[in-house]
């Protein structure tokens, strides 16, 4: 009989005792078998452990390859899952940073966290592999979003800045281009000024529209080596253009992304959605609360399209909130402050 492979860690029995206020206190121990990754797991000066302690209200003691966690029962259970998830990511060759630790802490309340990191049954872990990095979900909503990107034809991603709507979509598009499941990437965005007047821009058409499309370029260069991006742009495998250039086309065998879609008109959105061709996938990203076109949200093609199309077979709608912001934590607090203020004014 074949010998089963050793686990990456051994888990001691979780001991629990009642706390005075009715909650239960627990203690558990993890033993990691790969000492080479412990430095990265714990972080410089145990920064990762301190981050987990502060966020979950537990005490973590590390001695050699043994880690003991003590505190309220729920916090201990979540800290255990976070450490197991971080360890698994290191074994998969991924890097850890403060954002990755924070993401797993946020997701540790999700019952499916272990399946997300390690896979469950025959299902692989949820991730997107590109030439430069492997993208893993950093919020519970990103889990839902990545699943939709892998299975639906048209995906609407709604929510505030910093939630990874466009970045994750570009990563999925790059991954599918690499594997040959699509032949072309088409990245588009309406050339609408966000409240300011840029005036007459010098240069040819590309020079004039590039400032509006810069976020798409940034995501692209983050997922592919620069020389590959330039070569594929030159060959037409990757096309970045304002939405006005989409009229009259049928986009087959393509992964199509529309960013800042809240700034399309209803006519533009209908035109864009009907470009969909055979063996294609379309992602429409935007923040319904940040509309810069005349008439505001009432005239937004994004809001109109979601109202008409949500629930149709093959179409998914993923809604992000301030809790899903994966940039610096202060960005999430800023978004919450503004949304709260706007809610008060609307009322």
Observed structural traits:
347 residues; alpha/beta; Ribosomal Protein S8, Chain: A, domain 1; Rossmann fold; six-stranded parallel β-sheet; five-stranded antiparallel β-sheet; 12 helices; 41% helix; globular; disordered N terminus; disordered C terminus
Overview of the structural elements:
With 347 residues, the protein is α/β, with parallel strands linked by helices. It is 41% helix and 18% strand. It is built from 12 helices and 13 strands. It has a 6-stranded parallel sheet, sandwiched between helices. It is globular.
Write the layout of secondary structure elements.
Layout: E1 9-11, E2 15-18, E3 24-32, H1 38-42, H2 47-56, E4 59-63, E5 66-72, H3 73-91, H4 98-107, H5 113-118, E6 128-129, E7 134-135, H6 140-151, E8 154-158, H7 165-179, E9 184-189, H8 205-223, H9 226-235, E10 238-242, E11 254-258, H10 266-273, E12 281-286, H11 301-309, E13 315-319, H12 329-346
Parallel strand pairs: 8-12, 8-13, 9-10, 9-11, 11-12
Antiparallel strand pairs: 1-3, 2-3, 3-5, 4-5, 6-7
Helix pairs in contact: 2-4, 3-4, 6-7, 7-8, 10-11
């Amino acid at each position: 009989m074949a010998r089963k492979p050793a686990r990456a860690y051994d888990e001691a029995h979780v001991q629990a005792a009642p706390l005075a206020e009715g909650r239960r206190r627990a203690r558990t121990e993890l033993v990691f078998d790969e000492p080479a990754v412990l430095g990265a797991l714990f972080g410089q000066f145990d920064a990762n452990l301190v981050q987990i302690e502060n966020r979950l209200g537990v005490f973590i003691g590390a001695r050699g390859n043994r880690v003991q966690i003590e505190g309220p029962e729920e916090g201990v259970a979540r800290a255990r899952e976070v450490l197991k998830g971080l360890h698994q990511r290191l074994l998969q060759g991924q890097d850890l940073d403060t954002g990755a630790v924070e993401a797993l802490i946020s997701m540790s309340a999700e019952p499916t966290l272990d399946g997300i990191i390690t896979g469950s049954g025959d299902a692989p872990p949820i991730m997107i592999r590109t030439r430069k990095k492997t993208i893993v979900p950093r919020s519970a909503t990103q889990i839902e979003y990545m699943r939709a990107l892998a299975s639906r034809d048209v995906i609407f991603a709604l929510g505030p800045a910093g939630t990874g709507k466009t970045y994750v979509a570009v990563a999925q598009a790059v991954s599918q281009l690499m594997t040959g499941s699509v032949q072309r990437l088409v990245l588009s965005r309406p050339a609408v000024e966000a409240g300011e007047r840029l005036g007459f821009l010098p240069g040819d058409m590309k020079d004039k529209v590039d400032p509006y499309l810069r976020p798409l370029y940034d995501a692209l260069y983050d997922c592919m080596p620069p020389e590959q991006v330039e070569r594929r742009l030159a060959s037409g495998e990757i096309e970045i253009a304002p939405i006005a250039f989409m009229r009259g086309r049928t986009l087959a065998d393509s992964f199509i992304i529309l960013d800042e879609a809240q700034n399309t008109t209803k006519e533009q959105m209908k035109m864009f959605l009907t470009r969909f061709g055979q063996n294609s996938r379309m992602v429409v990203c935007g923040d319904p609360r940040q509309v810069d076109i005349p008439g505001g949200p009432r005239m937004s093609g994004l809001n109109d399209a979601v109202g008409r199309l949500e629930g149709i077979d093959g179409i998914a709608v993923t809604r992000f909130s301030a809790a899903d912001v994966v940039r610096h934590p202060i960005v999430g607090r800023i978004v919450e402050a503004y949304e709260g203020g706007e809610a008060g004014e609307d009322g």
